[in-house]
Amino acid sequence: MRTSLTVAEALATVLEHARPISEHEEVPLTEALERVLAVDLASKVDHPDVDNTAVDGYAARAADTAGASREKPVRLRLVGESPAGRPFSGEVGPGEAVSIFTGAPLPAGADAVVAVEDTARDGEYVLLFTPATPKDIREKAQDLRRGEVYLRRGELLTPGRVGLAAAMGYDRLPVVRRPRVGILSTGDEVVEPGTPLPPGGVYNSNAYSLAALVRQAGGEPVLLGKAYDSVAALKQRLAGAGRLDLILTSGGVSMGEYDVVRHLLEAEGTIHFWKVLQRPGGPPIFAEYAGTPFFGLPGNPVSAMVVFFLYGRPLLFKMLGRSDPPYRRLRAIAEDFFKGAGKKTAFRRAVLSYDPTAPGCHRARTVGNQSSEVLRSMAVGNALVVVPPHTNVEAGQEVEVIPFGEVLG
Ligand code: AMP
Ligand code: MG
């Protein structure tokens, strides 16, 4: 069993064991937001399908309107109109114009438009104060060309991409099936929120913070409740879990007698590694159990979240075939002292804010108490300050940060 890996080694090992999900499902556009596109999508149509106008005004023949000005307007005879969706069926002849509205096809015979602001109506005629030009004509297929791929497999469906898929003619989209992620909490002391807290008890926060992180990463959390600290209880819960793509447990991975997740995996799993040189979150176990990747996360609430964010999230991204990175790295100016952790990499929680005057444009302030059981640090904070081994970060120093929440100005 490999133990005490560096952060980079642990991440590489986790990614090595990620099996991309091959099953797709079709969802309507209204359900597609934040799903991952499973295939390349080519446009079914040209857009626009014909030349059309980008302005309200008049369509005419440019040659008829040369030299038009306020002083010497050009007068054209109106022969019809072309509202969006109801094209003018006739042809624009010499000395003629058709009134036209944004998005409407340019009528046959016309090769130019003039905006309504540069004209005046005169009964059956229109006066042009500037020449009609092709500049406000949107050329056929200038936006989308039929058969061309504009959305690619692995792309997260953002609002813009959902809209683009609709514009390309799709009403349903093939997306990657969400990985089903079992979440099991261990610990005799752990009780469900909403029930009375017995002496020495602690509410099961891990299940819910992890379920939220899983959802954010594109997975489907499957809450498996909690198991008492015995190998038998743990096995029983896992046996009843159904088909999963990943198992997450929290607690029971340290050195103690009651660290039953470790005992179970030592006896019946294949352990890829135990322990990473980092703080918080030192003792995670990454393994395979009954053919399923298994992350034994530490019990401390901050550790569980940080370890999932740094390794579990990239694992889910790879399973989903997502082409966007699982997290960003930014540079920031530390406003406080951030303590290192000797030979380990420290991930200190910070409030990261945008400041265009700071080098790197960001500032990182400590959340205060950096203990791994103080979950408020993850609620108040929005980023991890990375403190490399054998260093501390002094106030005023430039640091690397990994945002895990929205960064505000
Ligand atoms: P363990 O890793 O099992 O020794 O747990 C470490 C610490 O995390 C202990 O203080 C536990 O009470 C706490 N803990 C374990 N599981 C949870 C949980 N699901 N929710 C909140 N705290 C937990
Ligand atoms: Mg425990």
Which terms would index this structure?
Molybdopterin biosynthesis moeA protein, domain 3, 7-stranded mixed beta sheet, Molybdenum Cofactor Biosythetic Enzyme, Chain A, Molybdopterin biosynthesis moea protein, domain 2, 8 helices, 4 domains, binds magnesium ion, binds adenosine monophosphate, alpha/beta, 409 residues
Describe the structure.
- The protein is 19% helix and 31% strand.
- By secondary structure, the protein is an alpha/beta fold.
- It has four domains: 2-22 and 177-320, MoaB/Mog-like domain (Molybdenum Cofactor Biosythetic Enzyme, Chain A, 3-Layer(aba) Sandwich); 26-47 and 146-176, Molybdopterin biosynthesis moea protein, domain 2; 52-138, Molybdopterin biosynthesis moeA protein, domain 3; 330-400, Beta-clip (Beta Barrel).
- A seven-stranded mixed sheet has the order 1-19-21-22-18-14-17, sandwiched between helices. The chain has a six-stranded mixed sheet with strand order 8-5-7-6-10-9.
- A hairpin with a 2-residue loop joins strand 9 and strand 10 (125-128).
- The longest helix is centred in the C-terminal third of the chain and has 20 residues, at 301-320.
- It starts with a strand and ends in a 6-residue tail after the last strand.
- Adenosine monophosphate binds at residues 185, 187, 189-190, 202, 204-207, 250-252, 254, 298-301, 373.
- Magnesium ion binds at residues 186-187, 251-252, 258, 299.
